[in-house]
Amino acid sequence: MQRYFVRQQANDEQFIIADEDLHHIVKVMRMQIGDQIICVDPEGKHAVCRLAEITDSSVVADVVQWKDEVSELPITITIASGLPKGDKLEWIIQKGTELGANQFLPFAAARSVVKWDEKKAAKKIERWQKIAKEAAEQSHRTAIPEIGSPMNFKELLGKSKDFDYKLAAFEEESRNGEMSVFSSTLKQMKKGESLLLVFGPEGGLADNEIQLLKENGFGLCGLGPRILRTETAPLYTLAAISYHFELLR
Among 51-55, 116-120, 170-174, 242-246, which is the least confidently predicted range? Predict the structure, then answer.
């Protein structure tokens, strides 16, 4: 059943759907009156709905049954990625959304080859947010991750004060056989707490960045004996978090 994130809460047990989702329902899916969809409101509540009215400006969907399935991780995860080359960040956002991330914070790292173009910023962020929305629909999430505007490293350090726990993946820790920081952090965390995970770009984090992370309360963690690519490491951590908090329960 197709899932849509509706911008307003249900009014009299009805959802009003417009804009891109209206186009998707009518032109892409070619749905008719009586077809069923799932609507998710801004608070994450979701319901099976039946299409009751279709006009040029909106679709009206009647609530058939409210659902109470849980599809969100019990802790909130933010992925901070040093700006990588090509479309790697789009991949991280899409797959990271499917795996349960709540927020993505791109940042300009010392070794980032890509330079952020402010002139193209709005369109870029809009595209990333659309990728997150579509991935959230596909994976039956009840929340769409937020995509932050790319920031510099100092801004990232300031933002890190908002989190309960913060870790940075560092390949040297993996080479040195460090295996406990990531797992021990997960064991300490309780439902509802937040975790910021920082990943460097293709060249990794620079020495001065590592020093600043340590000075700002970050734990440095290895991710096993293999060195992972910048687009693979965030997905590895999200899968491990899901296993720890959901499959082991």
Answer: 170-174
Q: Which amino acid is at 139?
A: S
pTM: 0.91
Of the pLDDT bands very low, low, confident and very high (cuts 50, 70, 90), residue 213 is very high
- What is the pLDDT averaged over residues 202-225? 94
Res. 226: pLDDT tops 90? no
